[in-house]
Design a protein that fits this description.
The structure is a single chain. 32% of the residues lie in helices and 28% in strands. It has 269 residues and is an alpha+beta fold. The strands form 4 sheets. The protein has a 7-stranded mixed beta sheet, with helices on both faces. It has a 3-stranded antiparallel beta sheet with strand order 12-14-13, with helices on both faces. A hairpin with a 4-residue loop joins strand 6 and strand 7. Helix 1 packs antiparallel against helix 2 and helix 6 packs parallel to helix 7. The radius of gyration is 17 Å and the shape is globular.
Length: 269
């Protein structure tokens, strides 16, 4: 475990504890201007993450979902910044499912180089730094009791896909049909990237709208485990996208996450 991962783990675990307090009590839900839901769990977790990152890394700006929604956008012209989604999978959280996560990623040169995806209700986390990805299992007192190095799998006879439970689309169905995917799992939040990273699935197509804080931490984990996240033209998904003509700052284009990029070419043959 690197020093960076150690700090990110502590911050994510504390944010997750605040989220579970609200989860157990039952959240109050409000809606932002784009009609996406937000709860006090999002706000409490983000406050913890922002405060702790400011202490640990005072010179690195942080782009966080709720702060951006309130108009607080830092200068990221240095090319090094954190992306934070304090509660990814808010709909899953509200509906009392377990696949919601805390996402923190460090971006350098427009790509995520480290990050953590923490699923507090599942007592597990995925971390990445220095080209290594690990899955962490937590015990009853919320301490890490096991660390497992993870790696993507090579393509088998058939592709297994994961996709969003809350954001299905015609394009997703067409993609799965076109690649002959018959084995499919519907999962919420950035855990979809992590299932690819730990060798449980092959591809995650996303044709619905996402923001950079939704994907950066999962992207970091998948990349460190040997996978890739690419745009529909095959180019790498980049971060720090501002002043976009066709969309708002930090909005992602459609993308596909692959465990084994060779599967893309093989599936097209």
């Amino acid at each position: 475990m690197t020093p960076l991962c150690e700090v990110l783990e502590r911050i994510a675990l504390d944010a997750g504890a605040a989220i579970l307090d609200v989860y157990d009590a039952g959240p109050n839900v409000s809606y932002k201007d784009d009609q996406s839901p937000v709860t006090e769990a999002d706000e409490r977790a983000e406050a913890i993450i922002l405060d702790r990152l400011a202490v640990a890394f005072p010179r690195i700006p942080v782009v966080a979902e709720e702060a951006v929604a309130s108009g607080r956008v830092p200068d990221i012209s240095s090319g090094c910044f954190f992306l934070v989604d304090p509660l990814d999978g808010t709909k899953e959280f509200i509906n009392r499912r377990s696949d919601f996560t805390v996402n923190i990623a460090l971006i350098e040169g427009n790509v995520p180089i480290a990050g953590i995806v923490y699923a507090p209700a599942q007592r597990c986390a995925y971390v990445a730094d220095g080209g290594r990805a690990e899955k962490l299992l937590l015990c009853q007192d919320w301490k890490v009791e096991q660390r497992q190095a993870i790696r993507v799998r090579t393509r088998g006879a058939a592709l297994t896909a994961v996709a969003s439970r809350s954001h299905g689309s015609f394009e997703t169905e067409a993609f799965l049909t076109g690649y002959g995917v018959t084995d499919f799992a519907s999962v919420g939040s950035s855990l979809k990237f992590c299932l690819l990273a730990e060798g449980k699935a092959d591809v995650y197509p996303r044709f619905g709208r996402t923001m950079e804080w939704d994907t950066a931490a999962g992207d970091a984990v998948l990349k460190a485990a040997g996978g890739s996240v690419v745009r529909l033209d095959g180019s790498r998904l980049l971060y720090g996208k501002t002043r976009q003509d066709a969309d708002s700052d930090f909005a992602n284009p459609h993308f596909v996450a692959w465990a084994d990029m060779s599967a893309m070419a093989l599936a097209q043959c």
